[in-house]
Amino acid sequence: MLHSLLLAGSLAGLTVVSPPSQGPDWTALEAEALRHFEALVRFDTSDPPGREAPAAEYLKQVLEEAGITVETFELEPGRTNLVARLKGSGRKRPLLVMGHTDVVNVDPKKWTHPPFSATREGGYVYGRGTVDDKDNVVAALMAMLTLKRQNVALDRDVIFLAEAGEEGSTRVGIQFMVKQHFPKIDAEYCLAEGGSVTRVAGKIKYASVQTLEKIPHGIELTARGVAGHGSVPLRSNAVVHLSTAIAKIGVWKPPIRLNDTTRAYFKRLASISSADEAKRYLDVLSAAPGVAAAADDYFLEHEPRHASMLRTSVSPNVIQGGYRINVIPSEAKATLDVRLHPDDDPTAFLEQIKKVVGDPAVEVAWAARDVRPGSGSARLDSEGFKAVESAMTKHYKTVTLPTMSTGATDMAYLRARGIQCYGVGPAIDSEDGPKGFGAHSDQERIIERELQRFVQFHYELVLALARADQGR
Ligand SMILES: [Zn+2]
Asked: Residue 210 C-alpha to ligand 1 middle, in angstroms?
């Protein structure tokens, strides 16, 4: 945080010591970060309909007051994306720091503290968006303000993107920015949501940094049969054919796939786990017949997220068929949530599902869904990842696990354009999610101290990646 004395070199035998550089005043910055965070949480940016404009306007004012130029972009009125840029020498390609200002919807009746109140209680700040994703927005904002005020010389531009529409309308957000304004956000590296630091019983266990994500697809099953009177059961009953197809898919285990991210993830996770757990995390990497399968079976039962990280996953989530008790319907449909492993080929996967179903009465086809582009993993041997890792070590004193997220983020669009994106986030108690305090829950909250730690971590990470190299 505070820079030590800089030795400016010796001159005619005299050692010239430059005055101590004034590091940021974190006490003041913490108060300011909290103020901006509360202000941002208090904008109801539930998506739909989004209404990100007032939040973007607030950010614009704050940035402009600090002397930072801001541009805004809208595909539709009220769905504002904001871009601000601090210029560097151009010696390196830019760094993009981003967060989305929209949040998922709320059912206000279920909230003890009103969802847009930013109530502070017991060391927490409550409100929709506190951990998804106004934490990242405020961290990126504070990084911009601090770099500017500290007048930090930069080797690369630092670009801030506060985007609209992440929660279900990326058309007006990241898609619009990538398709129509890409030069405004093009960068070598990007920091965004998608990672977190996990605390168990108040103790930090590990940091997850998202380097890759699965690709959401949808498959629709349509069973067709003969309609008839319910008093005369038919072998061609569409409901029966559909249910049989779903049951087959439900027990089918798509093959295990590993890549650099998941290999490193399980290996590093093993290094901080109990002997039993470590064995399974290493077994799953084994090529010996049956070894990985046994660990995989355990994951399917007890650690479903790990099972999903190992393959393309399929979850039948919607089923429709029939309309009255005495009519055999001629059609029944089911929709499967498919999270494609980035190494899988979608066409081949659809063919596999057809084989698993193996029933000519059931049609298997892609369902309409906003499909994010696939991409390779962000590099694990880059300056970017190394900087993330050393910032994690410094601020959280823990191991960094590169993670392939089973869910999707806007980083998919940027990775597909060649940007190395790393998903980061504040420390969260692993107990909080199951208790109903996690992202998208009815009592979303953040640990106030951890928000502050994250803001500082984020600033120093940006500094490490962008500050001009004094030695040149
Ligand atoms: Zn989010």
From this structure: 13
